[in-house]
Design goal:
- By secondary structure, this protein is α/β, with parallel strands linked by helices.
- 49% of the residues lie in helices and 17% in strands.
- The chain is built from three helices and seven strands; from the N terminus they run αββββαβαββ.
- The chain has a five-stranded mixed beta sheet with strand order 4-3-2-5-6.
- Strand 5, helix 3 and strand 6 form a beta-alpha-beta unit.
Length: 149
């Protein structure tokens, strides 16, 4: 064989190796791009399902948001007059003693009340009096902002 044929065979071999390596690199890049894309789609589908809570139809009012560093103690009253403290159900009789026990360990003695707008006013006042009787002086009412018309 002459030198040129040997040279051309070597060039072909090198080109073949580089082509194979390039194909592997493209597959690797495709996998690196595809996998996060699949994870993003899974996250986007499952994230709305993770939003849990107690469904309450809040009244609307003009007020500014309150910022708090500590985790909020949220009391929720549903339309059917069920009372929850941070998603845990309680009766109105248990509310006062439970709040006293919870507030003994909290530095910030602040409670937020979230009541459905269809709950009778008298029931909300009873819950508020239980909160005050438990020694809580700061009570915030949670509302939805008014929509501009």
């Amino acid at each position: 064989m002459n030198k040129w044929k040997i040279f051309l065979l070597r060039v072909k071999a090198i080109a073949r190796k580089e082509f194979i390596q390039l194909a592997r690199d493209r597959r690797t890049v495709a996998l690196m791009v595809g996998m996060p894309l699949v994870l993003l789609i899974i996250f986007m589908v499952t994230a709305p399902m993770l939003q849990q809570g107690i469904k309450v139809n809040l009244p609307q009012a003009r007020a500014q948001s309150i910022k708090s560093e500590e985790q909020k103690l949220m009391i929720t009253i549903t339309k059917d007059q069920k009372i929850y403290i941070n998603k845990n159900p309680y009766t109105i009789g248990e509310l006062g003693t439970t709040l006293k026990a919870l507030q003994a360990y909290k530095k910030n003695k602040q409670v937020f009340l979230k009541a459905d707008k269809d709950v009778p006013y008298g029931f909300v006042v009873r819950v508020m009096s239980e909160i005050k009787a438990a020694g809580i002086q700061e009570l915030g009412m949670v509302t939805e902002p008014l929509h501009a018309r």
